[in-house]
Amino acid sequence: MTLNSITKPLDKLNIFSLKGVQMKTFHITWLTFFFCFFAWFGMAPLMKIAREQLHLTKDQVGNIQIASVSATIVARLLIGRLIDKFGPKLIYTWLLVLCAIPVLLIGTSHSYASFLLFRLAIGVIGASFVITQFHTSVMFAPEIKGTANATAGGFGNAGGGAANLFMPLIASGFTALGFCSTEDSWRYAMIFPGVMLLICAFLYHRYTLDTPQGDFKDLKDENIKSTKNTFLIAAKDYRTWILTIAYAACFGVEITVDNFAPIFFTDSFGATIAIAGMVAGIFGWINVFARPLGGIVADKIGKTRGFDGKTLLLALLLLIEGIGLIWFAKSGNIGMAIFMMFVFGLSLKMANGATYSLVPFINPLAVGSVAGIVGAGGNIGAMLIAFMFKAKAGHATKNIIENGHNVQKDLIDYTGAFTFLGFIILGIGIAVFIFRTIMAQKAAEIEDLVLTPSK
């Protein structure tokens, strides 16, 4: 791929096309993001095995879940500024290589402390989302940015669901082939996502460009590559912070469910690790169509009602999410819990897409920094929720039959935590609904970007 292919951002998204640097970059970006999420949440469905082998307490499990999302906060803030300055290709390549190290090495953990540190380091890979959203933003025209961002994000986020579904199968495969015991299977399973990150690093560096016009190092146009302090530009705009809170209420909850759903289904409904992973995987796979749907609907509304219409959609989706979460927590059986997880998951992931249909229009010269701050908000939300889950988690013991023997198991009950979380999301949805008018008042300067197709 050379700089001879100088083109403009695309005004259409054909997901079945590989023609042009824009579509090649789109597909490599979402695929890379998919494996980043797969690696990030690869341990979630295997935590029950690791918990038992390492003799982790309820509080230690809570700390590990907090660690898995907390490092991403700083990483997303930093990455947003770096890609504004150096471009997505270079930053993404290094992020993938560096994060592959803790993914490959977490299987060497034999203590709570080492496991916690590796889980913390793996969390940095969550910054990949910011690069994905930046890259699709610069590759596509204004009227299609929401759709492109949401589709790439949705396809990539499905990696979390894929991890819940396939990691137990990969672990079982290593055991069946005689490489390890069941107790050690989680250690071997984590090799797979680590290797995939290294493969993606090669593909990303080899086959993508920073922009349709070429790589940042070859560009002189400051409308594409900003030399200003884009982080301060983004931080001074209050709309950035409203979207940050909104994203905490949708993506923050998504990370929480990815981390806690497998344990919730095993401990609350007696599901096996494989069944719990498969059920939780449904939640992740909703991303394939739900997040793109949120972006598509937001773009459609934006063409007629602009910034205010998109923000109204976001508020309504958060309200539905909150109600669905409360109902999910109160489900009396696994069938109802699965159905309600689909309902609130659909609205939650559409809200993710709707949020990032607004992000590129806060300030076109600081897209990376705005995306980084808002993205970090999702992880701040996840971290705060993890603290809340740790505080509100119930504890119980239950006698079960395992291999013909009566065994006493320690169980964790997250029913109260999910209920409380639902009410918090309802409150945030109401707040976004109220503040949408204030946000729209400053939207006049960007309204033409939302409403007017590119020339």
UniProtKB/TrEMBL annotation:
It is a multi-pass membrane protein. It is found in: Membrane. GO terms for cellular component: membrane. The chain crosses the membrane at residues 21-41, 61-79, 91-110, 116-134, 155-179, 185-204, 269-290, 311-328, 334-352, 364-389, 414-435. GO terms for molecular function: nitrate transmembrane transporter activity. Its main location: membrane. The keyword Oxidoreductase does not apply. Keywords: Membrane, Nitrate assimilation, Transmembrane, Transmembrane helix. GO terms for biological process: nitrate assimilation. Residues 25-442 form the Major facilitator superfamily (MFS) profile domain. Pfam families: MFS_1. PROSITE patterns: MFS. It comes from the Bacteria. Belongs to the major facilitator superfamily. Nitrate/nitrite porter (TC 2.A.1.8) family. PANTHER family: HIGH-AFFINITY NITRATE TRANSPORTER 2.3. This is MFS transporter.
